[in-house]
Write a structure and sequence with these properties.
- This protein is mainly alpha-helical.
- It has 2 domains: 52 residues, no CATH class; 42 residues.
- It is built from 4 helices and no strands.
- The longest helix has 45 residues.
- It is elongated.
- It is a single-pass membrane protein.
- Keywords: Membrane, Mitochondrion, Mitochondrion inner membrane, Transmembrane, Transmembrane helix.
- Belongs to the MICOS complex subunit Mic13 family.
């Protein structure tokens, strides 16, 4: 148990150290440089793979587009999170009403729930 925790902690620490070293957590210029370096390293492999695929692979987006898309989707995620938090009381109220109605339906006898009441024989 302790060994597993140490291994996981070491992996997390190593990942953070490596990503800091290569510039992921640096300023935007470092990140742009890293993105362009990765893109140039992958280009020969992608070109080789494109020749083998029966369809056309789209180009990687430019850094300006990536920055815009990252900001856009981050902002959409934040907006939707707050919209969900805003609507949470409504969702909880609807859920509790459904639970209450379900328990009331179970509490009724089958004869009343079916709509036909049995009458005593004369």
């Amino acid at each position: 148990m302790v060994l597993g925790f140490l291994v996981r902690g070491g992996l997390v620490a190593g990942t953070v150290y490596y990503t800091r070293k290569v510039g992921i957590w640096g300023d935007s210029d470092q990140t742009d440089k890293l993105y362009n370096d990765i893109k140039s390293e992958l280009r020969p492999h992608v070109q080789k793979l494109e020749k083998q695929l029966p369809f056309e692979v789209p180009q990687l987006p430019r850094t300006g587009e990536m920055r815009f898309l990252a900001k856009h989707y981050y902002n959409e995620g934040v907006k939707n999170t707050f919209r969900f938090i805003h609507m949470l009381p409504c969702y909880a109220g609807r859920g509790l009403k459904k639970v209450k109605d379900t328990f009331q339906d179970f509490a009724q006898s089958p004869a009343i729930a079916g709509g036909a009441e049995s009458s005593p024989a004369k």
